[in-house]
Structures are given as structure tokens and as C-alpha cells.
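Q: I have two molecules that I believe assemble together. Could you output C-alpha cells for the complex as a whole instead of separate predictions?
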Amino acid sequence: QLQLQEAGPGLVKPSESLSLTCTVSGGAITSSDYYWAWIRQPPGKGLEWIGSLYYSGSTHYNSSLKSRVSISPDTSKNQFSLNLSSVTAADTAVYYCAGLHDAPTEFDFWGQGTLVTVSS
Amino acid sequence: QSALTQPPSASGSPGQSVTISCTGTSSDVGGHKFVSWYQQHPGKAPKLMIYEINKRPAGVPDRFSGSKSGNTASLTVSGLQAEDEADYYCSSYAGSNNFVFGTGTKVTVL
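A: Yes, here they are, computed for all two components at once.
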């Protein structure tokens, strides 16, 4: 069973960059059986897909965030990371990493989520 | 892409059924079979309940069912139980390796 765990700072200053890592256990991030994604949820609001990382290394981003976001793998640690630049208060949210099994079409496995607050 | 439209709330008594709609466009819900539904209890991560419109992952009760007609997908929870009280989100593949979520529906068991 795939397990995912997010980690990173809980507080980021406006205009700085937000960086989170997702540690995966129970499966290799390089496996063709899986795809990976980041999803966020502002307090009291709905879910927003941020972007996806395919086992091939290709990435796909939400067009509304594309100019500020990057997702990258760290195969040595079986992790993948999210970097979001030039953050504002609107980026305050619970950030989830997710695993997609067999096909990049639904989010099968989720981390517990980590709250990131953007504030000076 | 714009969020898929869901009703803010739905409710039913124990044992009854509740149906939640998820309306998109021909570019997302109407154009693909990759519609999924997620259950989220307060303070918890979402859980996949339905994928590819009407398929259930292992362990999800058959009280949960999905369907789609045109640009609108639906989730039905039959035989409502207290533990079904949660927020529910739909999601759809939107082409070009993009995804979009619904606005969310809070289900209350009366």
C-alpha cells in the first residue's frame, strides 16, 4: 500500500518561495505503476490541482499557477518536491501530495496534508 | 480551467439516498470518462470513492455509486449512514494532462 508524507515549513513570508517535499513509501517514484501530484485546499475552501509528475519525468501544471510552480523528483530519496514562487496570502492552504496508480486519471493515495501559512 | 459546479449542501435521513451533481463542460466532464469522487471528513485527507464515472475502489461500500449524463456527473449515496456525513468533491480530467475539481458538497445526515 502506497503511503505519502508531506514535509516543509509551516510559515512562509510573502514574495518568498514555498518548498515542500513528499516522501513516498510502498512504491518507487520511478515506477511506471505510479504518477504523482500536488493538490491544495485553502482553509474552508475546495480542492485545487496544482500539478503532476509522471514517472517519465514529465510535468504538467495548472495554467493558473504555471508561471510560479515547479514539481521535481529526488529519486535517491524516493521523494518529489513542490516549489511555488512569489507567494501571497492567497497561497495559504493545506497542501497534499497524492499518488495515482496505473493511470494519471484519479488520485488514489493521499498524504495527510500540511498547512502552509503565508504571512509576514 | 473553472471549477466544476456542485451544490453547496445536500442532506438525508439515515437509510435514505442522496444524490450530488457535478456540472462541467464538454472539455472536462462531458468529454472524458475520467470522473472521480472524493470523500473528505473534517481535518482529514480526501479519500477516493468512485473513479471512471462509476467504478469503486476496493473497500468502498456498494452504497456509493456514480453516473454521468452529458456534462453532468452524479454521485449517489444509498442507505445513508452517520459516517457518510462529510464533504464530497468531484474531479475530472480536463484534457492536456490537466485536472479540475468541483466546488464541493457538504452532506449532512439528519
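A: One point stands out. DSSP finds no helices and nine strands in chain B.
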